[in-house]
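Researcher: Let's try something more involved. This one mixes different molecule types, so please make sure each is placed in the same coordinate frame as the others.
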Amino acid sequence: DVVLTQTPPTLSATIGQSVSISCRSSQSLLHSNGNTYLHWLLQRPGQSPQLLIYLVSRLESGVPNRFSGSGSGTDFTLKISGVEAEDLGVYYCVQGTHAPWTFGGGTKLELK
Amino acid sequence: EVQLQESGPGLVKPSQSLSLTCSVTGYSITSNYWGWIRKFPGNKMEWMGYISYSGSTSYNPSLKSRISITRDTSKNQFFLQLNSVTTEDTATYYCARWGELDYWGQGVMVTVSS
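Model: All components are placed in one shared frame. Result:
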């Protein structure tokens, strides 16, 4: 199975600070069809996961544009440009290029 | 608006079967893919499997022959059955529109304990 390694496991930030989360894959996530099925989810406390970014860098409808995704191959990054209080929770990368789908271990974003 | 709602028992005894229902409104399950995912105590998430618009299924090999996902298109519901559960199957179980990952149920916590 593809292993996704997220760092850091915990991130402390102040409101307005910009932060980045890394997701590294044990193998390339470039599919033979040219797509890279790497997505980012946020799970706020007490809520179900919410899709933020799909296909590496595409912003899901309704998601603020302070969220952005980048990367290719095996290295991917989620950036939040100016953390807001509502951004707190656990962030996951998830891949669907190789069966079975797998998740990163999660990054918990906390207020400093 | 697409909505998903999980339902089922919150407590299952070891060696028994876990059965959950996902009721979908606002969208037909004869389109797209529909999955089950679980989150263990802590942060670990696991994709369990999905059922497609045609009724075909795909499962996580880690669950081997213990898992079955079926559906009732007349009720717009799909189901999870996990056999021979152990305490390691204690988790919060979610259903979601799979592939898109854009719609999720609120989750149901299932504890495996005697």
